[in-house]
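[job 0417] fold request received: TetR family transcriptional regulator
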Amino acid sequence: MAARRRQETMEENRAKLICAGRKAFGSQGFAASSMDELTASVGLTRGALYHNFGDKKGLLAAVVAQVDGEMASRARAASARAGDEWQQLLAEGTTYIAMALDPEVRRIVLLDGPAFLGDPSHWPSQNACLEATKEAVERLIAAGVMKRVDIDAAARLLCGAALNAALWVADSDDPQSALPKAVDAFSLMAEGFLVEKR
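[job 0417] inference complete; emitting structure tokens
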């Protein structure tokens, strides 16, 4: 009973720290966020942060995973509202790119994430997106919609293009102007995989 309660307390503390980290990193950025202020805001100590995440960078990784997971869910929801499976694949990519305009996504995932955690293509959340794209590409090739191409290569290029387009938009001096250019270029590039242009 005591072990279960201790586990629940650890999970609650972890959730509080992720919430506090998300708020601080989203508003102030990772570098400017104070660990003492962050932990105090939820009534915890630095020790709790170290215990749960190892260090501030570990907390950033947990926050990035949470926000990136929500981005993937939003992209899938947009995909589900699109027409056929090809349109769904495009909608998922273009929605992901458009999220670069969301201030929290921009700061946490697209600017601070790569700056402090390294190449996003190595993040677990990106690997989940890649697997889903591989499945979609495989179905589209089997249906004769996409050209016969290596599934892994096509999925990696599509995911990489969407991610890099989002990174470019987020880092642009004028993200609002960059977004339509990025979406148009992504769509044109993706159309190169089609058996026939639509």
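[job 0417] notes: DSSP finds nine helices and no strands in the chain. The domain at 6-193 is CATH 1.10.357.10 (Tetracycline Repressor; domain 2).
[job 0417] exit 0
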